[in-house]
Design brief:
Mean pLDDT: 82
Strand content: 15-25%
Radius of gyration: 16 Å
Number of helices: 7
Strand order of the largest sheet: 4-5-6-3-7
Structural class: alpha/beta
Largest sheet: 5 strands, parallel
Order of helices and strands: EEHEHEHHEHEHHE
Number of strands: 7
Low-confidence stretches: 1-32
Distance between the termini: 28 Å
Helix content: 25-40%
Amino acid sequence: MMTSMCPQLSATVLDWQRPVRNSQGGAMGEVATAVSDEAFSALADNLGHILETRALLCVIAPEDVQGEAVVEAALSRCDGADPVVVTTAAPGTLAALLDAFHDALHLGVRPRRLADAQRAVENELARRAWPVVVVRDAHLLRTEALLYVYGVWSLFQEREPRMPVVLVGPERIRSVLRRPSLASLESCVFIWHRLTP
């Protein structure tokens, strides 16, 4: 039987709100990140399994809940986990994803050659004791970018320590991952977690 890597989460309730920003950085209004004790506990259990098995988790959040904020809050209470939160945005290209990885890993300006940027990301992730990659708004990523996320996860399955990945997005992420070219990624998602308010 698997034991949760985050047992202290079972009685936690999130009741805070976070402003949503438009593309110019202005506030668009408040979006609830509050979830019930039961919903948070269910996410914590699934995160525990993912952290233990170093697998892929896909969190589907309703439009009125910022799933990534709930995931981040849960991970912040997991001893030893080192979340690497990658914030994606349109157009969701591989170059934009690598920029986001460089920001999240504090690597500075991305090298011009994508191969050099990829190598820098992979080396930094390998240097960390227990990285957990969280990809926010994963549904915005193009196929090549999602394949890179899958490739990094696969690479770390062949070495120690292995690295869990959490993809976060709205319901649309299911259809995105059903693209024929992403069949390998979709088939490796260990848990599909639907977050409820």
